[in-house]
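Quick one: structure tokens for this chain, please?
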Amino acid sequence: MIPGSQKDHPSFIRSFGYAIEGFVTAVKTERNIKLMLVAGVLTVVAGLVAQLEMISWALIAICIGLVIFAELCNTAMEAIVDLATQELHPLAKRAKDIAAASVYVLSITAAIVGILVFAHAFGLVGSWH
């Protein structure tokens, strides 16, 4: 497809299908996305047990979504780098390492949010205000 060309531009439904195909491919081929999905499911189960408040659910949902988003972006960036070069180039390594670091930083941030949310839900810390 030529960028900006409407003639070959996929429909909204077809674009949605491509997105699902990409997600399924990532789940089938990437270990880390599987781990993050399991962690997300376990967090939701823990949230149900803790009977989280609506704002806590919002924070948890945002964190789960952002971590999965970051891992999908990291996976896509790694594929692009691999497509661009098969050699062990220092810039390729740098790009991959920085992309992985972004997922790491976001995962730590999400874990901190999760600790705060669940500590509050189980009465281990006081009120938010």
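The chain has four helices and no strands.
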